[in-house]
Amino acid sequence: MTALCLAVGLAGFEPTTLLGFEEAMNHGWIMTLASPSSPTAQISFMAGDKTAPVTPDMSVEVDDVDAAYAAMRESGAEIVHPLQDEEWGVRRFFVRDPNGRVVNVLGHR
Question: In the chain, is it the N or the C terminus that has fewer CB atoms within a 10 Å radius of its CB?
C-alpha cells in the first residue's frame, strides 16, 4: 500500500492506520479500502488507469450507469472515456466536469 500511496502523491498517508479501513481490492494500479463496520464506505487510490487515456480525479458509483451515461450525453457533457465493461467487474465511463475534473462514473456488474 505504501508504494501505491507514493505513486499517487500521498507519501506518509496510511488510511488503514489513520481511518481504520481495510484493503478490499488491489490491482497494483488501483487499490480500494473499505470500512470494516460499514463496507460501502470506501476510498480508492489510483496511480494510473489500465484502459483509459487519463486518470480520473474521482470516482462515483451509481445505481444505473447506463442511465447516467445517457443523461451526460444528452446534456452535452464531455465524455472523456466511453461507456464500457471492464474485466474487473465494473461498467463505467469518464466525464469532465465544468471545472475540468475527470469523473469516473461506474456501476458494479
Answer: C
